[in-house]
Design brief:
Layout: H1 2-5, E1 12-15, H2 33-36, H3 49-62, E2 66-69, H4 76-85, E3 89-92
This protein binds fe (ii) ion.
Length: 101
């Protein structure tokens, strides 16, 4: 989306990418709300490993130096894949910490 707005290079991508594939954070009453809402899909559809693979491929094509992920909206499985498959340095954001690149 940023590439549509500007031809400037993208040095970093940061924030929540919303990939609760195998689980969600803050589950209540046995319901994994994050896997149902907030994925960009209809509630009866789930975000998949293929969706994550497409995003990883797009990020790798964009080739930012760093990717900063929020941990609140992504499962450990997706974090593991991102850290393993992204060519960029990947850090999980922590409240109160300062990041630079
Ligand atoms: Fe989020």
């Amino acid at each position: 989306m940023v590439s549509r707005l500007s031809n400037e290079p993208i040095h970093a991508i940061g924030g929540g990418l919303h990939f609760p594939i195998t689980d969600g954070r803050g589950n209540r009453a046995g319901i994994r709300f994050q896997t149902i809402i907030g994925t960009g899909k209809s509630p009866w559809q789930r975000i998949t490993d293929d969706d994550l693979a497409k995003t990883i491929s797009l990020i790798n094509k964009t080739a930012p130096e760093k990717v900063f992920l929020s941990g609140h909206d992504i499962c450990d499985h997706s974090i593991g894949r991102m850290k393993k498959e992204l060519k960029s340095t990947c850090e999980i954001l922590t409240a109160g910490k300062t990041y630079s690149f």
